[in-house]
């Protein structure tokens, strides 16, 4: 009996040591910058957020909803609701996406003091010419009238409590602003 009790105590001690050793440590890179030192620094953070969002979209596998989570992490508000609905619908319809979206221009939508603003608006030109969305039978689900290069207004909201400083809050197609060309 004493031998069995000693063995149970030893196993308990080992499990305790393992569990304590596995306690998650805070990620030192997850500390956000609370205040920007310049408008340029704030704009760079907003642009980096939008680029990370596009990268996350490019990594989506419509057959695997777990890949959607990275996209959701970069969004809030209307943008989050819209992308959740869109990706869920595409998954339910068993669509497949191939190709990569490429940002060819990102600029401030107008001169604005972004350092002190709660939101920032960017205008972007997005090349989607290599992106194909296909149905299960191989037929394209892309609107034949889709432009290869699209103009988009991106509104980002400050997010001081997260590892990144902005979240994509709204995406809106633009007619010719900025001039993206084709």
From TrEMBL:
Signal sequence annotation: 1-26
PROSITE patterns the UniProt entry points to: PROKAR_LIPOPROTEIN
Keywords: Signal
The protein, known as: Lipoprotein
């Amino acid at each position: 009996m004493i031998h069995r009790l000693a063995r149970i105590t030893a196993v308990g001690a080992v499990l305790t040591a393992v569990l304590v050793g596995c306690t998650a440590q805070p990620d030192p890179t997850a500390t956000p910058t609370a205040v920007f030192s310049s408008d340029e620094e704030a704009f760079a953070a907003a642009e980096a957020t939008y680029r990370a969002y596009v990268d996350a979209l490019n990594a989506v596998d419509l057959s695997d909803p777990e890949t959607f989570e990275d996209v959701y992490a970069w969004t809030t508000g209307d943008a989050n609701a819209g992308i959740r609905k869109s990706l869920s619908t595409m998954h339910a319809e068993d669509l497949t996406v191939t190709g990569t979206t490429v940002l060819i221009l990102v600029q401030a939508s107008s001169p604005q003091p972004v350092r002190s603003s709660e939101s920032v608006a960017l205008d972007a030109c997005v090349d989607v010419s290599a992106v194909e969305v296909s149905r299960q039978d191989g037929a394209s689900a892309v609107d034949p009238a889709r432009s290869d290069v699209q103009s988009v207004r991106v509104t980002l909201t400050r997010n001081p409590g997260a590892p990144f400083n902005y979240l994509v809050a709204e995406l809106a197609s633009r007619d010719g602003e900025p001039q993206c060309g084709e």
